[in-house]
Specification:
By secondary structure, this protein is α/β, with parallel strands linked by helices. It has 17 helices and 17 strands. A five-stranded parallel β-sheet has the order 3-2-4-5-6, with helices on both faces. A five-stranded mixed β-sheet has the order 7-8-9-11-10. A five-stranded mixed β-barrel has the order 13-14-15-17-16. The longest helix is centred in the middle third of the chain and has 38 residues, at 311-348.
Length: 574
């Protein structure tokens, strides 16, 4: 695998937009922005909820449960999107006057993903709900929905995962990715879907005089946007215009101190200043700590952290979540070393690395295989599935893909052609989960590799680093760094600006055992730079050479001092 820096093409002449810094204009243009409207982040520019298929039916079910003081159970998922979705649903319903609303999130080790038959039975025994509302799951859970219906429980599914050819027989389904749904934003996260459902319910309740009758002030739904922003960034969905509005509005609330105690506490323990928060802080600081609960223990702790209004209590839970995240890092590092050692042996034997990698170890932890697959995918730039034991007869797998390979579609093809290889699966274009028989691992690995190979060419596995071009020495300023930081929100499919250039390498040293701190120069400009998780067999390279770097222009803040810093994504000696 080679890494190639490719500069994005731009046509700024097609830009009908107010005056901007020329660098920012170039960046926006390369991301498909053409008009001022696409940069508007006001709530009035959100897509209307009315175009979501099934939303009226969902509102009717929820209103009936509220009106008759019935028990409503939110069934979530064990990742950050599921946790934030659960928190949005419960906070909204409580603000609407719901007397009996609770949540249940499946333990991944006991029940697996989604509204399974077994989970429904437990839910009915423990909570006796009249209505189950799924968030960030449910679109593939036919058996679970049938079991609920047999037990006399209504079911509303809210989800964003891709639907199969047939849908569960729920009372209502709200999912922009179900067939014939006209909602334009197909990339909305699960937390965004339930937020829209609650927007519609709030409007219905207001129109029918509910809040006046109950002497409740009409709830301000924007108070939930900090949670919505967290879930959207954590789930790495494409930041289309609608998602950028949701994230930007949430970031504004957090920056002004108007966020829930749970997010405040998680930012504190991650040493992040909420006033200067950017979307990547949610993705790399808050989300991993929240996810750690679902990966190693029970996501209920993460959800409770998002639900509490007591800052002291939130700080206590954030401390536990931080400890779990530290444990997760240790487990992940051990698993990654095992996987890389196994792959290294393949290379030492001069065996060609497969197009699609399947990895398994008896000691691997179910909760960390998704991160492991992502790390290996990043290193070798090919689709990866990491498996861990589920029980004596099954393996659980977590898949991560690369651009151009729709991983869920690949699994769907395998399931049709080799029905005995996959017991169940689901997911997105870039990430999926599955369960296979233990005895099928070798055969599945072979079929998966062949299926990936049929879609790729050799050069498809070369990693493309997309650059926004060169910055002149005069552009390497605090002013431009501030402009770029505030020009987001940046994220998946709307990436943070990345530049490339040649620099003189003046000084370099390892910190933390795997991060390379450097001093570099361009003409008369001397700058600090840092590259994270470098190959220590290659760096430091003590020759005073010129290096070609792909980098982000950042601001390093330390002891109230601010300096320009380059965050290096890739570098090579020229």
């Amino acid at each position: 695998m080679q890494k190639k820096i490719i500069r994005r093409t731009t046509d700024t002449d097609a830009f009908s937009i107010n005056p901007l810094h020329p660098i920012l204009k170039r960046i926006y243009c390369s991301r498909g922005i053409k008009t001022d409207k696409e940069l508007e982040h006001g709530l009035e520019h959100l897509l209307p909820y009315q175009s979501l298929l099934g939303i009226n039916e969902a509102v009717a079910c929820l209103y009936h449960a509220l009106k008759h003081d019935q028990k409503i159970l939110i069934v979530g998922d064990f990742d950050a999107d599921g946790a934030t979705s659960t928190a949005v649903a419960i906070r909204a319903l409580r603000s609407f006057g719901a007397k009996y609303v609770d949540f249940l999130v499946p333990n991944r080790f006991s029940f697996g993903y989604g509204l399974t038959k077994e989970l429904v039975i437990v839910a009915c025994e423990q909570f006796a709900p009249a209505l189950i509302v799924t968030v960030d799951n449910g679109i593939a859970n036919h058996a679970g929905v049938l079991t609920a219906k047999e037990l006399g429980v209504q079911v509303v599914i809210t989800d964003h995962h891709l639907a199969a050819e047939t849908l569960p027989l729920a009372d209502a389904i709200v999912n922009p990715n179900q067939p014939h749904d006209p909602f334009p934003s197909k990339h909305i996260a699960g937390v965004g879907v339930i937020f829209y459902v609650m927007l519609a319910l709030r409007r219905y309740l207001n129109d029918c005089g509910w809040f006046a009758e109950k002497n409740i002030s009409t709830p301000n739904m924007s108070k939930l946007l900090d949670i919505v922003a967290l879930g959207t960034i954590a789930d790495v969905v494409a930041l289309d215009h609608n998602n950028r509005i949701l994230v930007q509005q949430g970031l504004r609330r957090i920056r002004t101190g108007h966020c829930i105690p749970g997010i405040t506490a998680l930012l504190e323990i991650g040493n992040r200043n909420h006033e200067r928060l950017v979307s990547s802080d949610l993705g790399f600081i808050v989300a991993p700590r929240l996810n750690a609960a679902g990966r190693l223990d029970d996501m209920s702790l993460g959800i409770e952290c998002l639900l509490t209004d007591d800052l002291a209590r939130a700080r206590e839970m954030a401390q536990v979540l931080n400890q779990l995240n530290d444990e997760r890092r240790i487990i992940e590092q051990e698993m990654q070393e095992q996987a890389l050692n196994a792959l290294q042996k393949c290379q030492m034997d001069q065996t060609k690395l497969p197009y699609g990698l399947c990895l398994f170890d008896e000691e691997w932890h179910q909760g960390v295989i998704g991160i492991l697959a992502s790390r290996i995918k990043d290193r070798y730039h090919r689709p990866v599935i990491a498996f861990a034991p589920a029980n004596d007869t099954e393996l659980k797998g977590s898949a991560r893909s690369i651009t151009g390979v729709h991983i869920r579609d690949i699994l769907a093809i395998i399931a049709v052609q080799y029905p005995y290889l996959i017991k169940k699966f689901g997911g997105h274009a870039m990430a999926a989960g599955l369960t296979i028989p233990r005895s099928a691992f070798k055969h599945f690995s072979q079929v998966f590799d062949e299926m990936i190979a049929s879609q790729l060419k050799e050069d498809s596995l070369d990693q493309m680093i997309w650059s926004d071009g060169e910055l002149q020495a005069s552009d390497l300023t605090m002013e431009l760094a501030e402009i770029l930081r505030d020009a987001g929100p940046w994220g998946h499919a709307f990436p943070e600006p990345l530049f490339d250039d040649q620099f003189e390498l003046i000084e370099q040293r390892l910190v933390g055992g795997k991060h390379l701190k450097m001093t570099v120069a361009k003409k008369d400009i001397v700058l600090d730079a840092i590259a994270f998780n470098v190959d220590v067999n290659q760096w430091p390279n003590y020759r005073n050479d010129c290096v070609k770097m792909a980098y982000k222009l950042d601001i390093n803040e330390f002891r109230n001092k601010r300096k320009i810093q380059l965050i290096v994504e890739h570098m090579e000696i020229i």
